[in-house]
Amino acid sequence: MRMREAVYSIRFRLLGSLFVLLGLSLVIWMYGLWSFERDRYIKNSGTEALRAGQTIEQTLRRAMLENDWDRIRRSVGDIQQIMQPEMISILAFDGRVAVSTDDSLIGIRLDRNTMAGCTTCHNGRQELPAAGSAFLETEAGPILRNTIKISNAPECYGCHAADRETLGVVIYDTAFDGTFAMLHDVLLRSVLTGLFTFLVVIVVLSCIIQRFVHRPLHQLMNGFIHVGRGNFDYWVEVRTKGEFREMADQFNVMSRAIGRSFVEIKHKNWETASLYAFVRQLSQAIEWSKLQGMITNLLFETFSVEQVVLLLRQEEREEKVVEVSRWRENDQRLSHREFDSRKEIDGMPAWIMTEYQKWRQDALNSPVFSPDGTRAVLPLTSKKMAIGMFCLQRGRDNPFSEAEKKLIMAVGEQISIAIANARLYRMAITDGLTDLYAKRYGESIIRKLLDAYEPAENNGFCVLMLDLDHFKEVNDTHGHQVGDEVLVQIAELIRGSIRFDDIACRFGGEEFIVLVLGAPEVGREAASRLRQAIEQHDFRCGAGLSLRNTVSIGVAAFPQHGKTAEAVVAAADQALYEAKNSGRNRIVCLDGHAYSKGLPD
C-alpha cells in the first residue's frame, strides 16, 4: 500500500518526469554530438584530402610532362611516407591504374559502373558525379575517397589531344579508423560525463523538490488530514517562501474560518435541537398546574442552572395574585406559592426582588443578564401585555454563553405562547367565581387517572368531596354576594392546603371535589388539613363582616372503594352524606363496605 502511494506521489512523478526528460535530452545530445562531429570530421578530412590531392597533382605534373614514371612513383612514395594516406593511385584516361601505393592495383582497369568502390559516386550512370569525395565502408574499415581530375593543359598537347578535357584521375584514400575511434572515445567520455552529470542533477533536483515542493505539500496534506478529522486548530508551518507559504497562510485562515463556522453550526444545531425538544415537551402540557411545573423543570434541565424562579401574574383575579414556582439544585422539589403582586415576596434573593420590582412597575421590557453572565431574567409577554417573568441562576464558574443567551430568548417566546394558550384553556375549564376547575374537567381527570392506573405501581388516587356546613344560612342571612365571597375564600384555602399536583374542582353550589394522588392514608391527611384550615379561618367579607364556617368531607379511594369514575365519586358522596348526618365538621372515610367515622383532631 505504501509502495503504491509512493509511486503515485508528486515527488515520484516529478522525479520520474525529470528522469525521462533528462535521459531523453542526454540521448538527443549524444546523437547530435556523434552526427555533428562525424559529419564535421568527414567534411574537414575531405577538404584536407582534396588539398592534398591537388598538391600531389601539381607536384606530379612536371614529372608527368617529362613522362618520367620512375620519378612519379618515387614522388608518390614520398608523399605516402609524409602524409600517410590509406592509398594514392593515378588512373589513366582509360581507367587503368598507372601508379598506386598498392602494387596489387597497378595495371588493373577500374570499371566505374560495376566496381563497389566506384558505384557509390557513379551509381551506374554515364554522367560524372557532382561530388569529388565519397565515404566508403570497406573490409579494412571506413575510408574517405577523394578524386582529383588531372586536367588537360596546353603544355600537355604534345602527348595528348587538345580536345580531351581530362587526362586522368588522382585517387586519394584517407582511413577513418582512427577518427572513428576518437569519436567513439569522445562519445564514451561524453556518455560517462553525461550520466554522472545526470545523477548529480537528479540528486540535486531531488533535494530541491524535497525541500521546496514535497515537504510543503506534505505539510499541507497533513493540515488537510487534521482539518478533515475536525482539528481546526491545527497550524500548518511552511518554512519556505513563495506560493507554498501563501498557500499555507491561506489554508490556516481557511481552517480557522471553517472552525468558527463549524462551531456556529454546532451551536445552531444545539439551539435548534434544544428549542425543538423544549417546544415538543412544552406542547404536551396545556393544563395550568402541570404547565408551570414543566416550565421550571425544562428550564432547569435545558440550561443546567442552580435555581429557576417562575413568576406568573393572574390578572383575571381581583387580588392580582402572582404565582411563584421555584426549583433549586440543592432541593429539587417544586415550590409553588401565590402572593399578592402588590406586596413583597418573602424568601426571594435580593437580585430577583430587584428585577421583580421593575417588572411590577412595567419597567422590565427586555432580557437582563448580569455582568458576569451567571444570571438571566426574561420578561414574558403576550400581545404586549406582561404575563410574568422567569429567572435563572448559575454558578460563578459557569456563565451563560452567547448561544445559550439566544436560546433563552427563543425559549421565552415559546413559554409566553404556551402560557397564553394554557390560560385560554384554563378559562374554558375553570369556574368563573372560584377559579377552581369545573365539574366536567374534574370528571375528565378522573377518567384519565383510571386509564393510567397500573396495579404494580400502586398509583391509585382519592376523591375528597367537600360541602360547606349551613351555607344556605349564609346566603339567606347575608345575601348571595357574601356567599360568593365565602366561596372564593374557601377556594383559596383549598388551593393553599393541597399539593401542587392535586386537583381541586367546584362541583356545584357549595360542593367541591379534590383529587389527591396516592393511597387512602394520603387522602385522609389532605382532608384533615382542609378541615382544619377552613375551621380556623376567619371569613372577612364586605362591610367588615366576619364569619366562621366549617366543612364536612367524604373520602373514597380508587380502586378500594370503586372501579369506575361513577362508583368512586358515588362512594365519596356517600361518605359525605354520612359526615353530614353524623354532625358535620368531620371527615368520613370509606373502608371496604363499612363506614368509619370520627373527628381527626
Q: What would your notes on this structure say?
A:
By secondary structure, this protein is of the alpha+beta class. It has three domains: 164 residues, PAS domain (Beta-Lactamase); 146 residues, Beta-Lactamase; 158 residues, Reverse transcriptase/Diguanylate cyclase domain (Alpha-Beta Plaits, 2-Layer Sandwich). It is built from 14 helices and 19 strands. The chain has a six-stranded antiparallel sheet with strand order 8-7-6-11-10-9, with helices on both faces. Strand 9 and strand 10 form a beta hairpin. Helix 6 runs parallel beside helix 9 and helix 11 runs antiparallel to helix 12. The chain is rod-shaped, with a radius of gyration of 62 Å. The two termini are 89 Å apart.
Gist of the model:
51% of the residues lie in helices and 21% in strands. By secondary structure, the chain is α+β, with helices and mostly antiparallel strands.
Main β-sheet: number of strands, strand sense, barrel status? 6 strands, antiparallel
Number of strands: 19
Principal-axes geometry comes out as: rod-shaped
- Please state the average pLDDT score: 79
The CATH architecture assignment of the largest domain turns out to be 2-Layer Sandwich
Radius of gyration: 62 Å
Q: Report the CATH C-level class of the largest domain.
A: Alpha Beta
Give the total of domains: 3
Note the total helix count: 14
Query: What is the CA–CA distance across the termini?
Result: 89 Å
The percentage of residues in β strands lies in 15-25%
